[in-house]
């Protein structure tokens, strides 16, 4: 149970449209709503930018933003994924572009007051990371066949140590997906909680009818403003880190070492 005015109150999942089928309970929650809003925002942005048959010759601000994201992810794919021709790399580009754009807009949307940070929930980030990781594993088997399993046993390992190393490598491989989800969730949740705590402290001091409290409030207020700017940078950085790690893992699956 989350107490009122708690820093964790902003992460509470609330059922907006409860639904139940037999013993299965479904509900349309606030994370579902904000994920739909994020997807709608991205689709509307792309629609308005491309509705004139590919955009304007002289790009406006929104078209420049879309082109910036597109070029950024395209360069990321070309730099991080090796051993493939440009045409083959393009098969992975849409998935990586959608992942980066979705995470970026979800993180930035969470910076809006009274909104909801979708990526601050472990199940959501874990579901996304494991879904992508399963896809990467399938690509690895498609490209390399059963030889893909050779990454579990490095060359030159003594035979008595082989079972232990295979187990350790398998655990390490599976923990890649887990660490992807934990990293994103932990950074977003910790940053938002810290901003909430300091904002509440600054507001409490501001509401006190005392000049000393008001003067003393300026320090926490400036810290909150600085942390908000830092959290904005973290929101962008975490989308980038998640995406570049996906590219690195995809490269490892395609080009076995």
Question: Would you kindly provide a written description of the structure presented here, covering whatever features stand out?
Answer:
The protein is mainly alpha-helical and 257 residues long. It has one domain (57-254). It has seven helices and two strands. It has helices spanning 30-50, 61-80, 86-89, 93-109, 122-144, 162-207, 211-254; strands at 15-21, 24-29. Strands 1-2 form a two-stranded antiparallel ribbon. The protein starts with 14 loop residues before the first strand and ends with a helix. The model has no long low-confidence stretch (mean pLDDT 82). Belongs to the ATPase A chain family. GO terms for molecular function: proton-transporting ATP synthase activity, rotational mechanism. Pfam families: ATP-synt_A.
Question: What's the gist of this structure?
Answer:
The protein is mainly α.
Q: Beta-strand level of the residues, as a percent range?
A: 5-15%
Structural class: mainly alpha
Number of helices: 7
What distance lies between the first and last C-alpha atoms, to the nearest angstrom?
48 Å
Fraction of helical residues = 55-70%
Number of strands: 2
Oligomer type: single chain
Question: Which blocks of ≥5 consecutive residues have pLDDT under 50?
Answer: none
Principal-axes shape call: globular
Tell me the number of structural domains.
1
Q: What does the main sheet amount to? A: 2 strands, antiparallel
> Which whole number gives the mean pLDDT?
82
- What is the element string, with H for helices and E for strands? EEHHHHHHH
Radius of gyration: 23 Å
Main sheet: strand order:
1-2
